[in-house]
């Protein structure tokens, strides 16, 4: 089964995404901040996709991706970053953290 990791501090959003993705046959794992997401992805490197918010307490989503990238966990995992941020600097940092 394909695993997807959702990292978001909004419980409501996590539940909405989980329900819809499980309906489509995905196994969904959830974390409420970047540090928990980091640990969850490291423990589940067979996940196919990370859906992550940017702004969260503690470790934010971009920092989580940067740390995963440093540990070479991300090369085979797709990433979708969910945010309302419009800053080009933040967008560039997100792309750099992923590549």
How would you summarize what this structure contains?
The protein is an alpha/beta fold.
Q: Tell me the radius of gyration.
A: 13 Å
- The H/E string reads EHEHEHEH
Beta-strand portion reads: 15-25%
Principal-axis shape equals: globular
CATH topology: Rossmann fold
CATH class: Alpha Beta
- Please tell me the overall pLDDT: 86
Q: Give the domain tally.
A: 1
CATH hierarchy: architecture: 3-Layer(aba) Sandwich
Q: Main beta sheet: strand number and arrangement?
A: 4 strands, parallel
Low-confidence stretches: none
Spatial arrangement of strands, main beta sheet:
2-1-3-4
What is the chains' assembly state? single chain
Helix content: 40-55%
Strand elements, count: 4
- Helical stretch tally: 4
Structural class of the secondary structure composition? alpha/beta
> CA-to-CA gap between the ends?
26 Å
User: What is the CATH H-level superfamily?
Assistant: Response regulator
What does this structure look like?
The radius of gyration is 13 Å and the shape is globular. It is built from 4 helices and 4 strands. The mean pLDDT is 86. α2 (34-43) runs parallel beside α3 and α3 (61-70) packs parallel to α4. The chain has one domain (3-98): Rossmann fold, CATH 3.40.50. It has a 4-stranded parallel beta sheet with strand order 2-1-3-4. It is of the alpha/beta class and 99 residues long.
